Amino acid sequence: MVKITDVARRAGVSPSTVSYVLSGKRSISAATQRRVEASIRELGYRPHAGARALASSRSNVLALVMPLRSGIHVPVQMQFAGAVATAARGHDHDVLLLTQEEGEDGLRRMADSALVDGLIVMDVQLSDARTPLLRTLPLPSVLIGFPAEAGGLTCIDLDFTATGESCVGHLAHLGHRCVALLGSPPEVYVRGTGFARRTAAGFTGVARRYGMTSTVLPCEPSRAAARQTADRLLRDHPGLTGIVVHNEPALPLLMEAFQRAGMRIPQDLSVVAVCPDELAENAAVPVTSVAIPADEVGERAVELLMTKLNGVAVPETTLLSPRLTPRASTTVCGPAS
Amino acid sequence: MVKITDVARRAGVSPSTVSYVLSGKRSISAATQRRVEASIRELGYRPHAGARALASSRSNVLALVMPLRSGIHVPVQMQFAGAVATAARGHDHDVLLLTQEEGEDGLRRMADSALVDGLIVMDVQLSDARTPLLRTLPLPSVLIGFPAEAGGLTCIDLDFTATGESCVGHLAHLGHRCVALLGSPPEVYVRGTGFARRTAAGFTGVARRYGMTSTVLPCEPSRAAARQTADRLLRDHPGLTGIVVHNEPALPLLMEAFQRAGMRIPQDLSVVAVCPDELAENAAVPVTSVAIPADEVGERAVELLMTKLNGVAVPETTLLSPRLTPRASTTVCGPAS
DNA sequence: ACACCCCGTCGAAACGATTCGACAATCCCG
DNA sequence: CGGGATTGTCGAATCGTTTCGACGGGGTGT
């Protein structure tokens, strides 16, 4: 293994000088810098991560806490992870994977062992047992998602309230008066995942403001549940002309169920979804949708964490504005042509 | 921060003794052991990862190289990752996430910086630029998937040849004589992902042995491509009664396309898929399928790596046998009832 | 021309563990 | 009861960086 002293010897300088060239923490003459950099390249030197971490008390690793087996839509998680990993590399950091199941002990382990410099926590619940711990941990952290009580934490997410508002607003402007939100499975609401509730709040708020008739229903992602939900909705609300679906796996099932019940899309029923563009584009009828900007969220999360690592304060709350993309599944409300 | 000397002082022993209690590398009297363990617990001591790595030249971290944005089916990847992370924790190791894009440099970086003890590489191509490097790297590695030339490497995967054989065998025993394999998009074959080719080989081999008429076609996961593929297949092979689908996103689209073309499932067409059980169970007609045992593969991969880390030799090749689960989508070939 | 300051570099002391050789104390057996 | 093996513990060296204080040399200001 080639070490810093080897580089130093070859460049005719002391080890500390090599270190300073690498870190830029002291000024180095151009000539020395060139010689050192050449030696580094020629020897293929890379600092020993452990030694560096020990001496500098910085590991250059971030922990990413991921829900690896939950009912949440998986591809989006993956996109988060990819974005975080890529962004982290851009800041010369690596990413350590931590599973949700490790829970609070996992976080404490990270802190005590100095294995990572900071934490990015995904899938935060409204009432999340980890938030008190995160507030007191000596490790900086950024949460993707919002707990009910976010004071003292750094959180970032898509603005789901605005997303709900935007979806129902789109329907309202198309003249729809009776709408429904079909959300995540009941268990997601029960365990209090923030985004589900906030979408519902935005949806209901704007619907009320426009004087629309609105309903919110959870939905399991099974064909049977989708049919049942659709049938029940049509029975209880014969005037229904628009739905918002915030449940990725259930989206195709629900569209199928409504069509089976005699509703043509978009002639009889307009559909707006909260889902990745890819899914929306490839549906039988391309779906008007709001995508979760996972790449941007991940990247911004890393940026926030890096800023905190540099001792600079960051805003507690970062909300990304939703962008609604109109597609074939929504049209003006009126007698079918 | 509490360090080993603190623990030692409180327990009335020397730091080295504490270290030996922790590692078990020397025998310690029961009494001392108890005292040391108590001190550790009371002070909440955890070894400093960097210091430990420096002194022992073991970081207790594994790198997992993941394809984060490819055309491969995502949930399965995620399942691998989860299984690897969990298994690694079981061996007191953590998992560092490395993206495919880092490529060979990423691997070299891991080796040079001593950031990890070993590598688990997913999504290996038949002709993979990383395999020569992996052979020479001083870091032990395990590949999930097989390159064309696997000598000198440790590889594990589902036995896709046997999987193809098993699928077509199932159809054969039901009396089908004219069958097709619908696989991954062309790009996957082109870039030479091993599993796609091996499934096809197993499929074709057994079909020939049974004297069946067989076809292999790639398929893009879009509605249009699915329809085109189905129509073309039915035109070219009017006697077709069985298909094997090895393309998760395309599975529902293909089933829909065949039904639209007038084929009832399973009365007119039997369908076998290679996909997760969850997907197979939730299809309109539950699909007879072979699942990729991602959990087992991930766990075994970690086990293999740990064994190598302990300096023990392991088999170069580990193939997991496929298990076919019959469901409603396959039935005996014959005149429709 | 003198004092002063800044720039570039060096040497040495951390950082917090692991591990090796040494050393008592205990044990067993003749 | 003594000698050799065994067991349990300790002290000191070591791992490869970073970082702090010091120091010489050249420039600047007066």
From TrEMBL, chains A, B:
Residues covered by the HTH lacI-type domain: 2-56
SMART domains to which the protein is assigned, alphabetical: HTH_LACI
Alphabetized CDD domains for the sequence: HTH_LacI
SUPFAM superfamilies cross-referenced by the UniProt entry: lambda repressor-like DNA-binding domains, Periplasmic binding protein-like I
Keyword Transferase among record annotations: no
Tree of life domain: Bacteria
Keywords: DNA-binding, Transcription, Transcription regulation
Pfam families: LacI, Peripla_BP_3
GO molecular function: DNA binding
Gene3D superfamilies registered for this protein in UniProt: 3.40.50.2300, lambda repressor-like DNA-binding domains
Domain HTH cro/C1-type: 5-32
Protein's UniProt name: LacI family DNA-binding transcriptional regulator
